[in-house]
Specification:
Blueprint (H helix, E strand, L loop, with lengths): L3 E8 L2 E8 L4 E2 L4 E4 L5 H7 L4 H13 L2 E5 L4 H9 L19 E6 L7 H18 L3 E3 L21 E4 L1 H4 L3
Antiparallel strand pairs: 1-2, 2-3, 2-4, 5-6, 6-8, 7-8
Helix pairs in contact: 2-4
Length: 173
């Protein structure tokens, strides 16, 4: 009788699946490589400036849905530049991006298509699923009041890339 175990191994950014005869260690099928998304060095650098809960959350999310980290912490110069460009409504130090570590992060689906709102919604749903499992409450910039109605506000008030720890999570620091 041959006993078969399936194995899964993570190697860099690939998931390798194969079956082995556990008695002889002989592969029974050819291995199959499935690409698993991972962050670029720049995204990892940006994410490293965030609260550890946001780091853990998006390191988990990227395995499900490819995304890129645009911004974590913003110093005064970066925040004022974001304000001048209309990317932020507030001056330094009034953004959630201005604490260190940052309690906010800007994340977009990769490859980036600013016109595909559904992919932003999909990213939010993936982040929310992972956050629930990790017991982290998040607020998304396209649903500021957290009522489940997305994109209901106008202009700067809709910030699809923005995720932050929900206000009640900030008390746990």
């Amino acid at each position: 009788m041959v006993r078969v175990d399936s194995a899964v191994a993570y190697c860099h950014s690939y998931l390798i699946c194969y079956s082995m005869d556990v008695n002889t260690n002989v592969p029974l099928v050819e291995k199959e490589e499935i690409s698993v998304p991972s962050f670029s060095k720049q995204s990892l650098d940006n994410l490293s400036t965030c609260d550890i809960r946001l780091q853990k959350l998006f390191l988990s999310v990227v395995k499900e849905m490819d995304c890129t980290i645009l911004c974590g912490y913003r110093n005064e110069e970066d925040q004022e530049r974001a304000f001048q460009k209309g990317l932020s409504k507030v001056h330094f130090p009034h953004s959630k991006h201005n604490t260190f570590p940052s309690v906010a992060v800007d994340v977009v689906p990769y490859p980036i298509d600013w016109n595909d709102r559904q992919r932003f919604v999909d990213l939010y749903h993936a982040a929310r699923r992972h956050a629930i499992v990790m017991r982290i409450r998040i607020r998304w910039g396209a649903d500021w009041d957290m009522d489940g109605n997305y994109w209901e506000r106008e202009g700067w008030e809709v910030d699809g890339p923005h995720f932050e720890l929900a206000p009640d999570m900030l008390k746990l620091n």
